[in-house]
Design a protein that fits this description.
heterodimer; A: about 450 residues; mainly alpha; about 0% strand; globular; B: about 180 residues; 5 helices; about 75% helix; disordered N terminus
Chain lengths: ~450, ~180
């Protein structure tokens, strides 16, 4: 039954397109496939009893406990309008410089997105928060929408994004599996901290390239990004609106990268910091706290339900010998490791048109990760390549997620064509970054090596 | 056009009975979801307590760390059915957006019957032995100084499945009503 895993994958793909919740589509299709297998004697029913223990493994996973805490931090920054005031203060501080408003949007988006991890949510938030301001400042529509789409997806690869926490956890399991398959039992490990450190340099390069593009456009075509009328910002605003959130992010990141705290501890302290900032602004009434708590619960349940659904899928996929099939298939590919990596990247790029970061992390990475890493691919490099690749996919017309979501919240004078044209330069930057990273893996692997060895 | 009458002609259960079932399930999961959501704030506080204990008083408390795990498990396991009620589980909406209200309701009904009920039923059924064994030995933490309630934590797994089955029934009934009124 070597066809079974392929059929299962195709079936899931078709079912997902119908638009029933992803977690249940994954688990349900897999369960039906297992049922057919049990009836025809080609699937071992005993495998299905492994599920409760897997589920408890998810509950007991220390790293994943960072997820609700980071979500709560992000939700607090958003719902108590700390992020909005930061953007407002920054655009007034930097608005008089060429492209100053655009650059402010990029920086705030990077900060915000870091703690949400769902492309749609970030793009919508940024679209509602920044698009009106940019249009009011008479920014050219494609430049404004392009900046917002690109920044909304940028957050995924800027630590401490939830996307990286989840990817780090999945990669660490996949890496161990890869080494076991090679007969290495005192396996080396890769942690969420490694992935955070690995994302720093490529992430910052992207920020610099985005910023450079915006400033360059503003200088060469001042009509596309006119300076905002100079409005003085006083020291108090600087102190209240700009420094605290920036300091908070720096502290969270610094304590993880410096090895002072685990991601979960840093997330808890970061969430507390965000709540304190909100309390100082008197934004922590009963109603606000309740909204923050409910919003956090919904996002957390959504993320973990996909993880549960994906584990049922993975259990059945493995039960049908899917992982052996992938390994054999990769080894037969011409071009060895490079060929296999290229195919994986292409497939992930295409899957990015219909699946979000979390789903791809839980469904695809456990399937292809062990096989690639057994062929010698570095886990941190692979993780960062996947992240940047997906980010590019989310931006690419006509299917990119970011474009859909921005279209949904943009005023009618913003045309779909304008949104498409606006992202093109940013896609170029992304592709350039992918090529650079493909040829210079040190950009991702250098910092974790320095920090943790 | 009378909007309410067609519902009363649906076999054994009249429309009013169905509405009562829907309301009961929705209220139950709403109550549970809203109650456990406060535990996210408790998670923040306890995590900070762990950090302060470790870095200020250099004292590592397994019990405190495990408390975070219990809170986390309670939040996301009991929150799953609540999130279903709130339509908070992600869908692939490339095509879904273009379907009519009726088609969407039909997809939900089929999905609930073919996927949700079997999956939740399977998790419930498969976890019964697992959990009852844990109860029979009153399973406690394997860590020295850990919490004694692992069997309670594990009980959340069939509970999650049970709440999900209930919410699935309510969602199916609501989708059926949508189809009937459209």
């Amino acid at each position: 039954m070597t066809l079974a895993p392929i059929l299962l994958f195709l079936a899931v793909f078709v079912v997902l397109l119908l638009g029933y919740p992803v977690a249940l589509s994954l688990a349900g299709t897999a369960l039906i496939a297992a049922g057919i297998g049990i009836l025809t004697g080609s699937f071992d029913a005993a495998l299905l009893y492994a599920m409760p223990n897997r589920l408890f493994g998810i509950v007991a996973n220390q790293t994943l406990m960072a997820v609700p805490l980071f979500v709560l931090m992000g939700v607090t920054l958003e719902k108590t309008r700390i992020a909005e005031q930061l953007l407002d203060a920054m655009s007034r501080a930097f608005g008089r410089f060429p492209g100053g408003l655009g650059v402010s949007v990029t920086l705030v988006g990077m900060l915000m997105a870091a703690s949400t991890g769902i492309v749609g949510a970030t793009v919508v938030t940024m679209g509602l928060m920044a698009l009106p301001a940019m249009l009011k400042a008479r920014y050219q529509v494609p430049l404004a929408t392009g900046t917002i789409c690109a920044t909304g997806t940028l957050g995924q690869i800027i630590p401490p994004s939830i996307a990286l926490v989840l990817l780090g956890d999945v990669l660490s399991n996949a890496y161990q599996q890869a080494q076991l398959s090679l007969g290495i039992f005192n396996a080396r490990t890769v942690s969420v901290g490694d992935l955070f450190a690995g994302a720093m340099v490529p992430g910052l390069i992207l920020v610099v390239l985005y910023t450079a593009y915006i400033v360059l456009t503003a200088v060469t075509h001042p009509e596309k990004a006119p300076p905002v009328r100079a409005e003085d910002i006083n020291a108090r605003e600087l102190l209240v609106s700009i420094f605290p959130p920036l300091l908070l992010m720096a502290a969270v990141l610094g304590s993880i990268l410096g090895g002072l705290a685990t991601p979960t501890e840093a997330a808890g302290v970061g969430a507390m910091g965000a709540l304190i900032l909100a309390a100082i602004r008197r934004e922590t009434g009963y109603g606000q706290l309740r909204d923050i708590a409910i919003s956090t619960t919904k996002t957390t349940a959504m993320v973990f339900f996909i993880l549960i659904g994906a584990s049922v899928f993975a259990l059945v996929f493995r039960g049908y010998g899917g992982d052996d099939l992938v390994t054999a298939w990769f080894q037969a590919l011409p071009g060895g490791v490079i060929g296999a990596t290229f195919i994986v990247m292409l497939v992930i790029f295409l899957l990015g048109f219909i699946l979000d970061f979390i789903e791809i992390t839980f469904v695809v990475v456990p399937i292809v990760g062990p096989a690639l890493m057994a062929m010698g691919v570095d886990p941190v490099w692979l993780g960062i390549m996947i992240a940047i690749n997906l980010q590019t996919s989310f931006l690419t017309p006509p299917f990119g997620f970011a474009l859909f979501y921005l279209r949904g919240v943009a005023p009618p004078e913003v045309t779909t064509g304008g949104i498409y044209r606006g992202v093109v330069p940013f896609i170029m930057i992304q592709l350039a970054m992918l090529v650079i990273l493909a040829f210079m893996p040190q950009l991702a692997t250098w910092l974790p090596g320095v920090l943790y060895q | 056009m009378p909007l309410t009458t067609p519902l009363t002609e649906t076999g054994i259960l009249g429309g009013r009975d169905i509405n009562i079932i829907i309301q009961f399930i929705d209220r139950l999961n709403d109550l549970i979801g809203r109650a456990v959501s406060w535990l996210t704030l408790a998670m923040v506080i306890v995590t900070c307590a762990v950090v302060v204990a470790r870095y200020v008083f250099s004292f590592g408390s397994i019990a405190l760390q495990e408390t975070v795990m219990y809170l986390h498990g309670m939040v996301f396991l009991t929150g799953i059915a609540f999130t279903l009620k709130e339509q908070g589980h992600v869908r692939v909406d490339v095509l879904h957006e273009r379907f009519s209200e009726r088609t969407r309701a039909l997809i939900d009904i089929l999905g609930n019957l073919l996927f949700l009920l079997p999956v939740a039923g399977y998790i419930f059924w498969a976890s019964l032995d697992y959990v009852s064994f844990s109860w029979s030995v009153k399973e406690a933490s394997a860590q020295p100084g850990g919490l004694p309630g692992v069997y309670l934590l594990k009980t959340l797994i069939p509970m999650m499945a049970g709440l999900l089955i209930l919410q699935g029934i309510s969602e199916t009934a609501k989708s059926l009503q949508k189809i009937r009124t459209s």
